[in-house]
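Ligand: LIKH6CAM. Inputs:
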Amino acid sequence: MSELIPLPESLKEAIDPYLPTDISHHNANNNCGSEGDEILDDNNRPLPFITLTFAQSLDSRISLGEGTQTKLSHLQTKTMTHYLRYNHDAILIGINTFLTDNPSLNCRYNPENVHPIRPIIIDPNMKSCAANNYNFSNLNQLASKNMGLSPYIIVSMLTYLNLKSDIDQLNNSHSGPTIIPINTTKVKYSNNIELFDWPHLFSLLKNHYHINSIMIEGGAFVINNLLSYNFNLINSLIITIAPVYLGKNAIQVSPDFHLSLLNNHNTNDRNNLTWWTGIQDSVLMFRNK
Ligand SMILES: NC(=O)C1=CN([C@@H]2O[C@H](COP(=O)(O)OP(=O)(O)OC[C@H]3O[C@@H](n4cnc5c(N)ncnc54)[C@H](O)[C@@H]3O)[C@@H](O)[C@H]2O)C=CC1
Ligand SMILES: Nc1nc(O)c(N)c(N[C@@H]2O[C@H](COP(=O)(O)O)[C@@H](O)[C@H]2O)n1
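Predicted complex:
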């Protein structure tokens, strides 16, 4: 586990306007989020502030291949992701990222003022708990030592019905993960495969589990699916770009449709987009109004 470095002041200044406002613990951020920006679901219930954030190569790849963790970020931008964790209630990843990276998903930004962030794993078939995957995971080690919160694992209703007694037992255990079943729906643009409906999941997390802000780190399936689903669900997009090509066999981030961050109405208005450049990486920050 690498030590973090102090966050460059210029990066902190650049990123603060892209953070959620509604973080309970600490700083009075001078950011542009406000009650009025809140996104609602179809039933007019509020949704959490969503930040989509990941590190990519020059050719829009996030890892060298399936089952491989690839370090792209410089320590400066790695520290930035922990500053982001410090400013969100939860951090969400897909099951392949959990199985490949065995991540810690805790916040190591300010050890004097520990910020508990809730890991959330999108895992329709509950692979995270099979074959001792969870028992031997860093998430479990950290949660059992009180150095991180235990995760919420999002499973399909079908999985829940098939494994009900095991899941009920896990949910009643003291420090184990919380298994949350939700319905899947057929997604037309994705070959009719059954997926979770993002607004439904976000609404449940906000209105039932009181999670006001979620940073979504990946992997590629999650990122591509979210970008393709409805870009308006995303409040902030923060992408680290490392000066490396990973090549065409690497895992690619690319939405199903053309998607532009440019504002066609007023090309001079670039208040919602910032580039920061450090020793190695550049960071694109975009605020979806
Ligand atoms: N460079 C970076 O910043 C990051 C890189 N990664 C890398 O990404 C790779 C993993 O990416 P992927 O293979 O694309 O897997 P992934 O981590 O996105 O997980 C994909 C799986 O999650 C589930 N899932 C995702 N969205 C769903 C939805 N809406 N409904 C139902 N199920 C859903 C499905 O089971 C799907 O097969 C790893 O190599 C990891 O190291 C992961 C996070 C960040
Ligand atoms: N920001 C960033 N840069 C990279 O180069 C990466 N490979 C990742 N990966 C994400 O970070 C998670 C690891 O978190 P811990 O340090 O173990 O807490 C990993 O699972 C990916 O989501 N991120």
